[in-house]
Design goal:
The protein is globular. The chain has six domains: 100 residues, Rossmann fold; 150 residues, D-amino Acid Aminotransferase, Chain A, domain 1 (2-Layer Sandwich); 70 residues, ATP-grasp fold, A domain (Dna Ligase, domain 1); 111 residues, D-amino Acid Aminotransferase, Chain A, domain 1, CATH 3.30.470; 72 residues, no CATH class; 81 residues, RNA polymerase II/Efflux pump adaptor protein, barrel-sandwich hybrid domain (OB fold (Dihydrolipoamide Acetyltransferase, E2P), Beta Barrel), CATH 2.40.50. The protein has 16 helices and 35 strands. 27% of the residues lie in helices and 32% in strands. Helix 4 runs antiparallel to helix 5 and helix 12 runs antiparallel to helix 13.
């Protein structure tokens, strides 16, 4: 077994790898950029090395810096995680050439499966069913249009080097083909440096089925069953589960056997995923499931496979990379129960799923029996604009699919994150959708019904009342009447907006604290009502928050400075316009949170003015 491991990644996957490595007694080395100097993966590793500025292209994607960090620390092996350099064959070869162990497939396997057209030809030769389409070298637009006509509309135009939903266009009728082709090629060229495309038949009721495969250097290859990743938004997975609903044993055997043939065709070593597209219009049948592509790395959704098989796939990776045989044979692997994973993101569904950056002042994720949380952040962490805004992967395992759904929903409903916005409530809604409950979701569900699933909702009256009572009773300011009416109404601010709440029993009319209202995976800040600030913005305790995402261009005050009502505090540049934020009342600058140049998200606290009366 290797003794030291550098993780060429960040966030939750780096933390995930560190946990297994530590259990196996392997020393871990983290790498980090400016934005990640105090990140959880840096604090969790035995050693950490700085590799460059915040943008990934200047740090995590610079293979030479990662290799230098490995040499400097004496690391024996490099684990790439997923994303970044994980499927870069040149980097994998550079690691091997440096005399280090590459925790991943052989570079030639990465290359073989890296281009969709070449991979499909290879799969056809291996007897793996592939989607009907055109894989030819002739990229003349007229020729591609003619091939699309032969296949029959609707068709998908896909960049051969694409991934993650980029470089893909659905074309439903011939007159739209040329515009879609040009758009797809531009995006493919910008994202991957390769504008070559293929044409595929578009499946009208598509389900995304993938099979986890694993190989070792001794010629052994097994599968660890399938996952269903059909619930997607803009080709990005939202909720994954294992096994796939509606998968009978005959179909499972056929699909998993095809996946093993695919892996054998490239002499695969390590963890990989064979992705299939299924026509789910009449249930799952082996003759209606076709190969799409292979991901030559560990997948984001690997925890659901771990949950139903009882195996640690990162441990498998490290053992295989160390030259050992696979820990289990195919006959020793079996499915136990059902598992689901939801990707909890720092994003605001009510604002078109825009990333929500800022400090995680409150971060509490519910945990149930059979629950697991994989995260790369903790309370107090800053969600950076430079990387994927994932907060955590929330995983639940149960004896049945219904129990797994119930447990995952409970974990998400009990999640409290503030002031950063999340998609937790959206995930709860998705889990409760009738088609999801029935196990008949296709990849287009959210596209068809997304608006109805992301409508912004406020807290219930009961939740507001509970929070208000907590806030009022916490104050305990002298002066309230013991003989107050059994019910009264208090005035508060909910995320800065006035709200009147029915209160039961006596209490102070002037509470001086704040409370977090949480319900169904959403959170709001409840504060006492005091007065209204400049430009009509309600500021119960003098909190000045960003009205929209933007950049602080000027700070006109300093910490502790006395200010007058209407005095300029900050200038914010947003939507190509400058916005002046002013003091809501006479007071002092009690809490200045930003400096010139800071990028801020909507509702981020910028400055707090203390009322001179208090």
């Amino acid at each position: 077994m290797i003794k030291s491991l550098l993780i060429a990644n960040r966030g939750e996957i780096a933390c995930r790898i560190i946990r297994t490595a530590r259990r196996l007694g392997i020393k871990t080395v983290a790498v980090y950029s400016d934005a990640d100097a105090d990140a959880l993966h840096v604090r969790s590793a035995d050693e950490a090395v700085y590799i460059g500025p915040s943008p990934a292209r200047e740090s995590y994607l610079v293979g030479a810096r990662v290799l230098e960090a490995a040499k400097r620390t004496g690391a024996e092996a490099i684990h790439p995680g997923y994303g970044f350099l994980s499927e870069n064959a040149e980097f994998a070869q550079a690691v091997l050439d440096a005399g280090l162990v590459w925790v991943g497939p052989k570079p030639k396997s990465i290359t073989a499966m890296g281009l969709k057209d070449a991979a499909k030809r290879l799969m056809q030769d291996a007897g793996v069913p592939t989607t009907p389409g055109y894989l030819g070298d002739n990229q003349d637009p007229m020729h591609l249009a003619a091939e699309a006509g032969k296949i029959g509309y609707p068709v998908l135009i896909k960049a051969v080097a694409g991934g993650g939903g980029k470089g893909m266009r659905l074309v439903e009728k011939p007159e739209d083909f040329f515009d879609a082709l040009a758009s797809c090629q531009r995006e493919a060229s910008a994202s991957f440096g390769n504008d070559v495309v293929l044409i595929e038949k578009y499946i009208l009721s598509p389900r995304h089925i993938e099979v986890q495969v694993f190989g070792d250097s001794h010629g052994n290859i097994v599968h660890l069953f399938e996952r269903d990743c059909s619930l997607q938004r803009r080709h990005q997975k939202v909720i994954e589960e294992a096994p796939a609903p509606g998968m009978d044993e005959v179909t499972r055997t056929a699909v998993c056997a095809a996946a093993v043939r695919a892996a054998k065709a490239v002499e695969y070593e390590g963890a990989g995923t064979i992705e299939f597209i299924a026509d789910g219009s009449q249930g799952l049948h082996a003759d209606r499931i076709w190969f799409m592509e292979m991901n030559t790395r560990l997948q984001v959704e690997h925890p659901v496979t771990e949950a139903i098989t009882g195996q640690d796939l990162v441990e498998w990776q490290l053992r295989v990379a160390s030259g050992e045989k696979l820990p289990k044979t195919q006959d020793e692997l079996a499915i136990d129960g059902w598992a689901m994973e939801a990707r909890l993101y720092a994003e605001d569904p009510a604002r078109g799923f825009l990333p929500s950056i800022g400090r995680l002042e409150v971060l509490q994720i519910g945990l149930t029996p059979g629950g697991r949380i994989d995260s790369g952040v903790d309370e107090g962490t800053e969600v950076s604009p430079f990387y994927d805004p994932m907060i955590a992967k929330v995983i639940a395992h149960g004896a049945t699919r219904a129990q797994a759904i119930e447990r995952l929903s409970a974990m998400l409903r009990e999640t409290v994150v503030y002031p950063v916005r999340t998609n937790a409530a959206f995930l709860v809604t998705a889990l409760g959708h009738p088609q999801f409950l029935a196990g008949t979701v296709d990849t287009g569900l959210i596209g068809r019904e997304g608006d109805a699933m992301v409508q912004a909702q406020g807290p219930s009256k009961a939740a507001l009342a509970r929070a208000a009572e907590t806030l009022v009773n916490r104050s305990r300011v002298p002066g309230f009447r013991l003989n107050a009416a059994p019910q009264r109404h208090g005035r508060f601010l909910l995320d800065g907006k006035p709200v009147e709440i029915a209160l039961a029993g006596p209490g102070t009319e002037h509470p001086r604290t704040s409370a977090i209202v949480s319900e169904n995976g959403q959170a709001w800040l409840l504060t006492p009502w005091r007065r209204t600030g400049a430009h009509g913005a309600a500021v119960g305790d003098g909190a000045i928050v960003a009205p929209m995402p933007g950049k602080v261009t000027m700070v006109h005050v300093r910490q502790g400075q006395a200010v007058k009502k209407g005095q300029k505090l900050l200038t914010l540049e947003a939507m190509k316009m400058e916005h002046t934020l002013a003091a809501p009342f006479d007071g002092n600058v009690a809490d200045l949170r930003v400096e010139a140049g800071a990028q801020v998200q909507v509702d981020s606290l910028l400055v707090r003015i203390a009322d001179q009366e208090h």
